[in-house]
């Protein structure tokens, strides 16, 4: 079955943006640096590209799930399912680290950038949820098909018996041995499929762990944005209070000036009166 016929994501085998960004973003001592517009753009583009990649993987699993258990079901399909999940899970883990790094980087940015990070996280979390549900459905379907195949194997092995005796019986015994060898090969294949089923089941558990990390990351981002809004609210209140204080100060200053002006007028009047009295006495 061809890669295109199965709807295999085009991103398989392409450049892993997230792996490069997360490696470049982390310092040697494990700490994170300050805000960098270039790094912010690079991480945002990588996360958006990986979100599309996970979405394509989810669509592939949905299509493959409809093929499992049908006449088109084969080992090649199951190998591709395992490869898709392995690669996608690695991309999800890398993108989760990129989101954690971006959350740290954007602390030095503005509110619009923080809202952009919150949207990237929300979109990525949503597509990972869809992908995780498809993984769980794939695991359940493969387990069901495995149990059916195992039951058919037991029926075949239990229904073939013979007692050696005549030449015909010897010939029949030889046929049975060949059949048993064939059944043993089929049983080995079933065991291999069971092992692959366990691998797929383990991949589902890994994604569930990442989902918990994404939920915690989304909560941290909400707290940061709430803190920013609260700070803005307090700043507005402080500005309004400052404006009121300035108005009051202006009123006090105007009152003070009026008082000084009145006192000057009174002093001038008193001076004129005193001067008039002195002049009148001198003339008399």
From TrEMBL:
Keyword Membrane: yes
GO MF annotation, one: SNARE binding
Keyword Transmembrane carried by entry: yes
GO biological process: intracellular protein transport; neurotransmitter transport; vesicle docking; vesicle fusion
Domain of life, per lineage: Eukaryota
Transmembrane segments annotated in the record for this chain: 260-279
Domain called T-SNARE coiled-coil homology: residue spans: 187-249
SMART domains, alphabetized: SynN (SM00503), t_SNARE (SM00397)
GO cellular component: endomembrane system; SNARE complex
Record-stated family: Belongs to the syntaxin family.
PANTHER family cross-referenced by the UniProt entry: LD27581P, SYNTAXIN
Protein's name in the database: t-SNARE coiled-coil homology domain-containing protein
Organism this protein belongs to: Anopheles minimus
């Amino acid at each position: 079955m061809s890669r295109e016929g199965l709807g295999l994501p085009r991103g398989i085998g392409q450049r892993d943006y997230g792996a490069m960004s997360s490696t470049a973003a982390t310092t040697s001592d494990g700490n994170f640096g300050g805000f960098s517009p270039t790094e912010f753009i690079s991480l945002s583009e990588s996360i958006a590209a990986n979100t599309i990649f996970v979405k394509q993987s989810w669509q592939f699993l949905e299509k493959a799930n409809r093929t499992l258990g049908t006449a088109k079901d084969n080992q090649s399909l199951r190998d591709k399912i395992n490869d898709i999940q392995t690669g996608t899970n690695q991309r999800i883990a890398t993108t989760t680290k990129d989101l954690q790094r971006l959350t740290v980087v954007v602390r030095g940015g503005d509110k619009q950038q923080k809202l952009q990070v919150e949207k990237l996280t929300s979109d990525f979390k949503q597509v990972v949820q869809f992908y995780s549900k498809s993984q769980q459905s794939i695991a359940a379907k493969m387990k069901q098909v495995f149990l059916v195949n195992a039951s058919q194997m037991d029926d075949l092995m239990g229904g073939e018996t013979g007692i050696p005796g005549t030449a015909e019986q010897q010939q029949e015994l030889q046929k049975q041995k060949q059949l048993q060898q064939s059944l043993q090969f089929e049983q080995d294949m079933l065991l291999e499929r069971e092992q692959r089923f366990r691998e797929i089941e383990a991949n589902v558990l890994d994604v569930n762990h990442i989902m918990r990390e994404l939920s915690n990351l989304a909560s941290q981002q909400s707290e940061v944005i709430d803190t920013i809004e609260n700070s803005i609210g307090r700043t507005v209140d402080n500005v309004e209070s400052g404006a009121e204080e300035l108005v009051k100060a202006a009123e006090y200053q105007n009152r003070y000036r009026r008082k000084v002006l009145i006192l000057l007028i009174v002093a001038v009047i008193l001076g004129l009166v005193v001067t008039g009295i002195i002049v009148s006495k001198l003339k008399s």
